[in-house]
Structures are given as C-alpha cells and as structure tokens.
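User: I'm preparing a small set of examples for a lab meeting where we compare how different chains pack in three dimensions. I only have the primary sequence for this one, and I'd like the structure in token form so I can line it up with the others. Please keep the answer compact; I'll paste it straight into my notes.
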Amino acid sequence: MAGLGAVDGGYFPGDWGLATIALLLVAATTVLVADLARPGRLELAFVAGLAALATWAALSTAWSPGATAPVLEAERGLLYAAAAAAAALLLSFRDALPAILGGVVAGAVAVSTYALATRLYPGRVGGAYDPSSGYQLAEPLGYWNALGLLAALGILLAAGFASHGRLVTRVLAATSFVVLLPTLFFTFSRGALAVLIVGAAVQVAADPRRARLVASGLILGAPAALGVALASRYHALTAAGDSLTTAQREGRELAAILVVLAAVAAAAALALHVAERRVRLPARAGTVLVAAVAVAAVLAGAGAVAAAGGPADVIDRVADSFGEAPAAGEGDLQRRLLSTSGNGRGDYWRVALGMVADEPLLGGGAGSFEAHWLRERPVAFHARDAHNLYLETLAELGPVGLVLLLATLAIPFAALPVARRFRYAPAAVAALVAYLLHAGVDWDWEMPAITIPAIFCAAVLLALTRPDEPPWLTGRRRAATLALLAPLAAVGLVAHVGNRAAAESIAASGAADPERGREAARRAATWAPWSEEAWQLRAEAELALGDDAAARRSLAEALERNPESWSIWLDLALASEGEARERALARAAALNPLSPEVREFEQILND
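Assistant: Understood. Below is the structure token output for the 607-residue chain.
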C-alpha cells in the first residue's frame, strides 16, 4: 500500500499491472507453501463479484466509442480482484487477520509521515516551496481528499488497536494518532473529516466493549488533538503566501511539539494499560461514560445548528452554497472546513444523470464520463470522474454494473453477526463504512492506494465467517488454483508492458524527445492493439518530427478505434490543411466546446 502511495496513489495505469502481478505472486506463493482451509462462500462471492465487475467493464467495449477507457477500467478492476484473492488466501492463517489491518495502519502512517514532513520541512522534503499555490496537503498521493481519507482509515483502525491491543500495539497505535490526525487536518478535507466522525460513531456502536474504546480514544487521542489545536495557530502552515523562512521556522517548531506529544501519547498508553490491569471499574461507569460522550456530541451539534440560525436556515444555506466555489486557496484554509460548497459536484452529477437518461440500459461504457463531461460541461474545468462511485457506475455500466457493484460491496456486511467476535472487527467495519461513504462524493475508486485498504478490511471481515475445517487446498486443487492465477498474471504483464510504453511515450514528448516517444508508442500499440491512445501518441511524436503524412495515417488508425475523441480530431487538424483542417477542428469543437486548446487554434487560424 505504501508503494502505491509513493506513486501518486497508484492512480496511473502504468502501475496497475506490476501491482496486480505482485499480489498474484503473493497468492501463488501462499498456495505453494501452505495447506489452506477452504475459503468461505462469502469470500468467494466477494472475489467473484469484483472479477465480474471488471469483466463487465471490459465487455462495455462493445458499446463504448473506444476501447482504451473500458480496458483500463477492467485492468484496475483486475487489480482489486487480485487484492481480494491474495487477502483471502493469506487470511487462512488466523494470525494474519490483525497483521493485515496493522499493515494498513503502518502504510497509512508511512504515507502520512512523508506528507506531514513536506509541510513541516518545506523546501527540504518534497517539491520546491511555492507560497502562491494551493496549500492543501496532498503529496505523495497527489490529491488532498485521498490523503485525508487514507489518514481517516488509519485513525479508525488505530483506534481499534489502541483500545484492544497488547501493550506494544497500544503504544504504537497511540503514537500513530500524532501523525495521522495532523495529516488529516492539513489536507483540510471536509469529506475525510465527515466520514471519520461517522466511522467513529459506527465503531462505537459496533464494538461490544465500547466503553473501553471510548475511554481509550479520549485519552490516547488527546495528544494528537492538542497537536492539531496547536498546528492551527501557525499561519504559515495553514495558509499559502508566507515566506519559505517563516514556513520552515514554524514547521520546525511544530515538528518538535509533535515529537513531544508522541512521547506523551506513548506514556499515556503505558499508563492506561497499567491502570486497566489494577483498577476495575463497575460496568455502569462505562455505560455512563459512553452516554455522556453521546449526549455531549448531540448537544454540541444542536448548539452549532442553533448558533447558525436553526435547522431550516442551515438546510437553506447548505442548499444555496452547494453550487458555489469553496473558500479560495489563498488565506486561512481552515475556513474551508466550514464550507458547504460542493466544489462542482452538482455539475458532475447532472452530467452523469444525463448519461443515465440517454443510455438507461447499458450506460455509456466504462470510463465514458470524461467524454460526456467535456461535451456538456458548463464551465471550462476538466474532470474525468463523476465524484460519485455509485452514480458514475450507473451512468457508465448501467443497472447491471450498479447491481454488481452494490451486491459485491454489501457482501462483507453479511459477516457482521460473526465478525463481532473478533476484537478488531468494529474498526474494520468503521473503516469500510468510511470508505464507502466517501466514495459517494469523490473518486476514491480510481485510487488503488485507498481502495485496496478498504478491500483488505472487507476481506478480514469475510475471513471470520470461514468454518474451521481441515486443510483443503492440497493436490489437484493446489494445481487448479495455480492454473487459474497464471493467466491472470499474464494479463497483468500485458497490461504493465502496454501501459508503461504509453507512459514512456508521454514522458518522452514532455522531454522533447519525439523519436523515443514514437518508438515507445509503437510498443504500446503492439501490446495494446485496441488502444487509440497508442496511435495518437505515435501521431503526436510524428508531428513533432515534422512527418505530417505519417501523423495523419496514425490518427486515422486512432479515429477508427475511437471516433469520439476530441483530442484526436484536434491533432488531425494540426496535421491537416485546408478543408480537412476545418472539418477536423469543427469536430473537435463539437466534442469539447469549451476547450481552450481548440479556441487557441481557432484564434491562430483566424489571425
């Protein structure tokens, strides 16, 4: 997970094939070296559901304008199915259940530590310091909401370990709060903060030992909360515009404070562990504590609503501001946490609903939202996703795709009656719920570094339903399982080589090396013959080399594979002259009316 986090969260296709192969190798190694128990029916259904969703995305090439986007969606879906399969096999070892959840926390802490270091040591860790840019913490994932969600998942799982783990585990979990909570704060992600609150409520409700969970959370989370309160007072760390010298000075001060608070959290975990062994409070005390916290939370919420003018005013204000832009990146970004702006989501959802109305049975095809958005967007803002996993799935894959998605994601919750016996199950449930809620307002599915941890949480819950039986995966079954994994690994290899070649071609173009870009594009077309992108990349390299005739031939191949790509038509306009140029440019403008590139080219022709 940390590896994917280091490469932009695994967002780009060039990283999917290698990750898929790695997960399948883990699965194959487990099959080879261990006598495994029979997977439960729910586990098999979960893996099969993810695989079926990927297959349906691949089948949508039959009705999509081009094959590139559906195939890429299927490749990412294969990665998720591989993650679920590898987790299911590893979880045959009961000791692996807390280990996998602990691995998710460790990965979240590793990513968050680097992210936090870029804020505390600007100009020394991460990229160059740019005081005029937006200031939400995003690296290494590249998207603040994704980083915020990863930190929130880590916090929820760490809360389970801090409450129910052994001494060393509790100390590590307590200190992890001091990294994860400030990271979440510096992302200024409203959605991540909201799902953390909801997830915490779910965790308390699901945990039979909720009094212990609440007490541990309040005591061990206090140092991290204090760290956030102190961080909010550093202007250079919470707002863009200050000098590098000021940001470095404030960053060093806060870093020292956080180190001290981490030590305090560790000491508190040790003291709490000792106190729990020596002091036995009556059960009623725990009930009173939980009730008091619940009442305090309700009163705080009610007070905030009353201060804002009452429920009716709050609802009207939220409805009115949802379509507005959020607080600007300049100035104190803490104001953003109180904003109810949808940041364009209303427009995304309207376009997606339009797709549903146009293609109610099959949808527009996997990955087709981007093309519809470019054609129908009301503002010149680019978006590839509808910022709602469920609506986007319905728009792109129709009712069949949505049913596959919802049925698959619902499977882990069927394990709840049994899973509650496992002390860390409430934390896994809370993290899974937080992910699923956040996916309804953002493009989390496109970020493997946060989707795979959610899959691992689901796999842990499902593994708890497995009956205790003697080893099952022996002899012929072992060979049959390996025979099933081998072709999937081959698919991952093909995807890796093709996607890497395309990425190399793009990088070569950016480095002004068109000859290398053309050669890489040729390889991409060889390994992904269905891809219009490969032929377009080849044409762009040929244009840079001054071979317009070859570029037109390559673009004709690209348009044969996807005649609805505005950028291919624009490239064809660049490579053509006279009426052919005008026709290509008109087609590009029709497919992307607000494109600044098209307008710029039109202006050049008019001048």
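A couple of notes for your slides: The chain has a mean pLDDT of 87. The radius of gyration is 26 Å.

User: Perfect, thanks.
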